[in-house]
Design goal:
heterodimer; A: mainly beta; five-stranded mixed β-sheet; four-stranded antiparallel β-sheet; B: seven-stranded mixed β-sheet; globular
């Protein structure tokens, strides 16, 4: 699986967009980019995933560069409840169990 | 719909004792997983199961065993607990390999 690199921490003002970057320069053509988040002491929560096209759902948008070597997770209007550790994971999409590798992620602090 | 439940919520265990962490899902997902998370670190995969009757080893399987007798249940057993197994344990499930749903976790302390 491709390795990912994320900044250890970021701050964001409430109501502003939070843009969380992820580098995955060794990604291969059949690997997807997944984002999960973990709010303090809870189990991780799936946010979004994509292959090469930009994706949007009710939680966030995922922007993947054309060369697929990096991506950005965008929370359009961050709230205090978005304070969490955000994990970027690169993995082949399979029809069987997907063994995700969680790094240390980015700790996002949303402030008043 | 409960999703994934784990039991117990927390446990303090003497070293050398046997312990089984329980995990049940009601989503009829084929795949299930066990992760551990040590303080300040990301999650590490212990064991997984593609479907009932099959299991596989993850990144840190030593000292742990699992079984998958049916679709819904995926217990994790520590045959003889050691202090280094003090951690928070998360169970997860997924329909095929797309999106994993996590349980609330079990906080285990081995003294």
């Amino acid at each position: 699986d491709a390795k990912t690199t994320q900044p250890p921490s970021m701050d964001c003002a409430e109501g502003r967009a939070a843009n969380l970057p992820c580098n995955h320069s060794t990604i291969s053509g059949n690997e997807y980019v997944y984002w999960y988040r973990q709010i303090h002491s809870q189990g991780p929560q799936y946010i979004i995933h994509g292959l090469k096209n930009n994706e949007t759902n009710e939680m966030a948008s995922l922007i993947i560069t054309e060369d697929r070597k990096s991506s950005t997770l965008i929370l359009p209007h961050a709230t205090l409840r978005d304070t969490a550790v955000y994990y970027c994971i690169v993995r082949v999409l399979t029809g069987t169990a997907s063994k995700l590798t969680f790094g240390t992620g980015t700790r996002l602090q949303v402030m008043l | 719909i409960a999703g994934i439940t784990q039991a117990p919520t927390s446990q303090i265990l003497a070293a050398g004792r046997r312990m089984t962490l329980r995990c049940t899902q009601d989503m009829r997902h084929n795949a299930m997983y066990w992760y551990r998370q040590d303080l300040g670190l990301g999650l590490r995969l212990i064991h997984y199961s593609n479907t009932a009757g099959t299991t596989g080893k993850g990144e840190v399987p030593d000292g742990y065993s699992v079984s998958r007798a049916n679709t819904d249940d995926f217990p994790l057993t520590l045959a003889s607990a050691v202090p280094s197994q003090t951690s928070v344990y998360f169970c997860a499930s997924s329909r095929q390999g797309i999106r994993q749903y996590f349980g609330p976790g079990t906080r285990l302390t081995v003294l």
